[in-house]
Amino acid sequence: MRAAPTILHLDMDAFYASVEQASKPSLRGKAVIVGGLGPRGVVATASYEARRFGVHSAMPTAQARRLCPNGAYLTPRFRLYQAVSERVMGLLRALSPLVEPLSLDEAFVDLEAGEVAFDSAGARAAGERLRADIMAATGLSGSVGLAGSKMLAKVASEEAKPAGLLLIEPGTERAHLAPMTVRTLPGVGPVTGEHLRRAGITTVGELAEAGEDELIRMVGRSHGLGLYRMALGLDDRPVVAERDAKSVSVEDTFDVDLHDRVRIRGEVQRLSDRCVGRLRSSGHSGRTIVLKVRRYDFSTLTRSETLRGPTDDPGVVREAAARLLEGVDTTGGVRLLGVGVTGLADYTQEDLFAQAEAQAEVEGGSEPAGPAGDPAEGPEPSGGDAADDAGTPDGAPAEPAGAEGAEGAVRGAEGAGAVGTPGEAVIALGRFWPAGSDVRHAVYGPGWVQGSGVGRVTVRFERPGSPPGRVRTFKVDDPELEPSDPLPLVGEDGGGGAGERARPRGAGAP
DNA sequence: TCTGGGGTCCTTGGGCGT
DNA sequence: TCTGACGCCCAAGGACCC
């Protein structure tokens, strides 16, 4: 806790949905729902217009469609959100070197470290300026909370939503929090909330009155202590600019439960490879391999295995995941599979052996010091000959090429980690038109896919900053229609309106 | 009417070395 | 040699967050 409210929390309003509305003028003022469009998809973000129908994050998309049948349902375009996010984070870093991003749309800023504010008036001015700068740079609104601690700044920005700013004066914290529901506090979810409710505690004030000992007895030492301190408005966690990742994982929920053991093994291999890809691109290796299985009845189990040293070898991860799968009963069906790696390091066991070898040579050691097997191989050396690694996975393709191909292609077109399934993509002659994706027509210019089916794709021709555009329908294999990159929400020169040139694929913010 | 994906942190319990 | 206390690591699960 500090004496001046110089910790700022920024929370962009309905971020994914707002980005979609900004890039698609015909959606402004309309109910927009971004999330997984498959049978098991959930809502990632709903615009405020959609929230009026009762749609909210984490709700099954099928339920959202019943509540809001006329909404626009779009798959997330993470690459675009990432680019917008980087622009916003750039503005935050201009305020202070101490910026702690929490996600694409949220961050803490230490205003004191940036020497932009030392008191309430300065903090408020910086917050207002920031909101204006974000609007100018992206056309989007964000809410700002200001307080003397991270927890309170976050509470304040939540209260300020949408498009507002709230400052909690030091000294008023406890009174400010007292009437609020316990669910306001970070770390109090449905389970803890219900636990407390049964004990007759529903507000933060009641939480503070319950006392430290009682809370520790109810929810455990660490959580109880934390809750009590938060209820008093106490929080001295610093803003931390750099955070090391602790794990990397990938998982897939299947539209239909998997029963075939061969198919399940194939999926685990595929996930292992994807996971290693992510691991390598983050410059890490890891020592503990984790397999996650969610069964037909939604019960979830994890199995893990710790290797002798960190690895980023796909063969090693694949084998470990396969070993773990052998110990799992999948009769009844599997709805989700996941593979993860924890115990991250920025080197591999192989590096260490290479280092040792080099060292030995320098020191004039005569022995080749070659560990015969893979040093990072699992606990049981029975694993196998290296030759096995190179072979095809089990010889069984197992993938219905159509579905797998479609998903891959959608991911390719959409950017990383689309939620769930291809959604409303149409597959014909190898061309996919996911709902919401950007396209360009040789004659009509840039637009986006509004829908597709029975060999046709409907495109609305408009761009950020333009008036709502016209809709035209084409054959899915129309040679004049091609996928394109998203246009910047605001011209790169800050001039408003659409940029004339699409950003090169994969390029981040400036 | 069902419940995504990618994370973090905490708790519990067992094994093991000192 | 046996036993208990302790600390550490590992495995598994759960709650929570965005």
The biggest beta sheet, please?
5 strands, mixed
The residue-averaged pLDDT reads: 81
Distance between the first and last residues' Cα: 35 Å
Tell me the CATH architecture of the largest domain.
Answer: 2-Layer Sandwich
The CATH homologous superfamily name of the largest domain equals Reverse transcriptase/Diguanylate cyclase domain
Instruction: Give start-end ranges of low-pLDDT stretches.
Output: 364-429, 493-510
CATH class wording of the largest domain: Alpha Beta
The geometry reads as globular
- Rounded radius of gyration (Å): 26 Å
**CATH topology category name of the largest domain:** Alpha-Beta Plaits
Residues in helix, %? 25-40%
Counting structural domains, the number is: 4
How would you describe what is shown here?
The protein contains 16 helices and 19 strands. The protein is an alpha+beta fold and 510 residues long. It folds into 4 domains: 1-168, 2-Layer Sandwich (Alpha-Beta Plaits); 180-231, DNA polymerase, domain 1, CATH 1.10.150.20; 247-381, DNA polymerase, Y-family, little finger domain (Dna Ligase, domain 1, 2-Layer Sandwich); 417-510, no CATH class. The chain starts with 6 loop residues before the first strand and ends in a 27-residue tail after the last strand. The model is unreliable at 364-429 and 493-510 (pLDDT under 50). The protein binds a DNA duplex (18 and 18 nucleotides) through residues 35-36, 38, 40-45, 57-63, 66, 102-106, 186-192, 220-223, 245-253, 288, 290, 298, 300-306, 336, 338, 340, 417, 419-420.
List the SSEs and their pairings.
Elements: E1 7-12, H1 15-23, E2 32-35, E3 43-46, H2 48-51, H3 61-67, E4 72-74, H4 78-95, E5 99-103, E6 106-110, H5 120-138, E7 142-147, H6 150-160, E8 165-167, H7 173-177, H8 190-198, H9 204-210, H10 212-219, H11 221-231, E9 247-258, H12 261-281, E10 285-295, E11 300-311, H13 314-326, E12 334-345, H14 349-362, H15 386-390, H16 401-414, E13 427-428, E14 431-432, E15 438-441, E16 445-453, E17 456-461, E18 470-475, E19 481-483
Helix pairs in contact: 4-5, 9-11, 10-11, 12-13
The chain binds a DNA duplex (18 and 18 nucleotides) through β3, α3, α8, α11 and β9.
